[in-house]
Amino acid sequence: MTSTACERQLHLxxxxxxxxxxxxxxxxxxxxxxxxxxxxxxxxAIVTVADxxxxxxxxxxxxxxxxxxxxxxxxxxxxxxxxxxxxxxTLIQHRFGGNGALAGHSVGNLLLAGLVDVLGDExxxxxxxxxxxxxxxxxxxxxxxxxxIEADVSGLDDDPRVMRTVRGQVAVATTPGGVRRVRxxxxxxxxxxxxxxxxRQADLVTLGPGSWFTSVIPHLLVPAIVDxxxxxxxxxVVMVNLTAEPGETAGFSAERHIHMMAQHAPRLRVDxxxxxxxxxxxxxxxxxxxxxxxxxxADLVLCDMREDSGSPQTYRHxxxxxxxxxxxxxxxxxxEAGALQSL
Length: 343
Known about the structure:
Layout: H1 3-8, E1 18-23, H2 25-37, E2 42-47, H3 54-63, H4 69-78, H5 83-93, H6 107-119, H7 122-133, E3 137-141, E4 148-154, E5 163-167, H8 169-173, E6 178-185, H9 193-201, E7 204-207, H10 212-216, H11 223-231, E8 235-239, H12 254-264, E9 272-276, H13 283-294, E10 299-303, H14 319-332, E11 340-342
Parallel strand pairs: 1-2, 1-7, 2-3, 7-8, 8-9, 9-10, 10-11
Antiparallel strand pairs: 4-5, 4-6
Helix pairs in contact: 2-4, 2-14, 4-5, 4-7, 6-7, 9-11, 12-13
């Protein structure tokens, strides 16, 4: 059975009309593909804007615009599953090769940058590309200005107790040290108003998976976004990564991912923390994860989300499995904190 055929058989909860997905990069891409598979009438992708590498970094430095790369990927993930939608997805993801001025740039990044220049508005530019791609919903930046990520990192000196400051998303994501805390520059930036409204109006809000310190936690460093998460009536779900990433979360367990989120956003309360079963094979580990989830006011949900490829080293979420998990978790509603659910 093809992936598309599987998607058509997925069950959409009757009350699930609006979903807001927070994140960035490949983790957000897989989440959006999962929500698209559920045929949700309206999907909001709310995307981090701190990338400073590659094509995105060049555009933010040369034009002063928000980095478009993660926004482009979200548009690609939500492109309509039609001949025209697939063509536009392929086009905006196409990256120029060679050694000239365009080398490394993707068509979608340049298209967004040009539209921002013409229209004078990032959200209007994203909406226009979304229309071309047949997106059912809206892709929004977390903030309307480019942000920087700054991290306290240990292990860069002979004395492991010494903390050094590392600045920039690429530098934080690839540091050989251990990230202890991250901040945004500027501190407490103004959010995109439409992103705040999308969270407040959603039936379901997802946070993660993705690069924990550079794509997921940054949303929780914007006070207005945390306020919207606290005020929304939506079911709020945190999806933990399948495994630690080299660099920023090297050596992290699923439990530590949850602890780091709670430390950075002590006021945050969510309904469910979803962890892949492979990350917690024993009842002993279930107990630790359940207590970590309780720090966010959440219950723990264990389910199978890993892509099947015949290799035990596959660490990518399967959109169809993720879609089923999200639908079933939404139907659980706001469960009693600390309760272990297994899907």
